[in-house]
């Protein structure tokens, strides 16, 4: 399971009053199988013993419907999403300030 990433800049106003978490609003689902050699699997476990896919799935099942919909309905977000960027990467970032999971 993967989530599409959308990044461009949107000004959210002073103190980012309306900044919230929009986890899972634009999900793309696909199945993909990876086969790792034993050595590769050991290296992956050494790099990080954490299993983020399990944490992500847990967070998704506890998500409330409609959380963050306000952001997707904002004119600034719609304009950002449909804009064709000729100006480089500075126009390709959507920054929402806030603590993770507070939205």
UniProtKB/TrEMBL annotation:
Domain of life assignment: Eukaryota
Name of the featured protein: Uncharacterized protein
């Amino acid at each position: 399971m993967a989530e599409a990433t959308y990044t461009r800049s949107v000004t959210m106003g002073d103190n980012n009053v309306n900044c919230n978490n929009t986890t899972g609003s634009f999900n793309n689902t696909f199945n993909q199988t990876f086969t790792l050699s034993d050595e590769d699997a050991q290296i992956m476990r050494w790099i990080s013993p954490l299993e983020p896919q399990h944490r992500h799935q847990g967070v998704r099942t506890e998500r409330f419907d409609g959380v963050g919909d306000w952001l997707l309905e904002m004119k600034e977000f719609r304009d950002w999403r449909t804009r064709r960027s000729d100006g480089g990467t500075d126009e390709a970032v959507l920054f929402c300030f806030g603590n993770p999971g507070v939205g």
